[in-house]
Amino acid sequence: MAKKILTTPISAEDIEALHVGDVVYLTGHLTTCRDVAHRRLVEEKRALPVDLKDGAILHAGPIIRPMGEDSYEMVSVGPTTSMRMEKFEEEFIHETGVRLIIGKGGMGAGTMRGCHDCKAVQAVFPAGNAVLAATRVEKIESVHWKDLGMPESLWTCKVNEFGPLIITIDAHNRNLFEEKKVIYNERKEKVFAEICPQVRFIK
After folding, report:
1. 26: nearest Cα among 148, 110, 104, 124
2. What is the DSSP letter of 60?
3. What is the pLDDT of residue 148?
4. Helices 35-42 and 86-96 meet at what angle, rounded to 10?
């Protein structure tokens, strides 16, 4: 099977061809964007200093090494828990036109609506691989909102085959985490019924 590579700018057609469970890689530009940046856009109505239309964001607080005047090196860039951004993400997608949202863990109904309406997807980067992720960053091209501190600043990076990324919400109203929860809960009830009689002596 050929490796699926998304290249920015990402088109609506690129997104419509993706389905939950697909594994993709990103080449082009990626901007770290987490809690405070989302809040500034959605609640404070502040325009982002980065154009994210047809682009990609990563819910992450990276570790950056300054290399000189306006020069930086990515040391570590592990994804942070995406559900923290859930209350902002639907409006964020509508306002920015972002196509690919990368993070850790699942997201909810608001993100699903945003992805469906605006032709976007959410994907997860496997947890525990922050240093590996940094190796896919070829260059940090710009940084904005440095007043927020290193983790919350907007770091725009040039990346090459950043991944693997597992599509967890697609533009077709599917949510991999929610679908798996149904299956796991069904299995849990069956196992629970089987083991309860065997451990009934435990108080």
Report:
1. 124
2. B
3. 94
4. 60
Residue ranges per structural domain of the chain = 4-175
CA distance 151 to 77: 10
What's the confidence (pLDDT) of residue 190? 81
State the pLDDT confidence band at 192, using cuts at 50, 70 and 90.
confident
Residue range 4-175 forms a domain whose CATH class is alpha beta
* Angstrom distance (rounded) from CA 28 to CA 7: 6
Locate tokens 């856009």: which residue? Answer: 41
Q: Work out whether strand 4-7 and strand 137-144 pair parallel, antiparallel, or are unpaired.
A: unpaired
Q: pLDDT tens, 97-118? A: 999 999 999 999 999 999 999 9
Q: CA–CA separation, 151 vs 33, rounded Å?
A: 9
How far are the Cα atoms of 26, 112, 133, 191, 193 from residue 99, in angstroms, in the given order?
Answer: 12, 13, 20, 40, 44
Residue position matching structure tokens 């828990």: 81
pLDDT at 169: 98
Q: Mind giving me the DSSP string for 98-134?
A: --EEEEBS---HHHHHHHHHHT-EEEEPPTT-HHHHH
Q: Which residues are tagged catalytic?
A: 38
Q: pLDDT tens digit string along 114-140?
A: 999 999 999 999 988 999 999 999 999
Residue 6, pLDDT > 90, answer yes
CA dihedral 84, 34, 176, 51 (to 10 degrees): 140
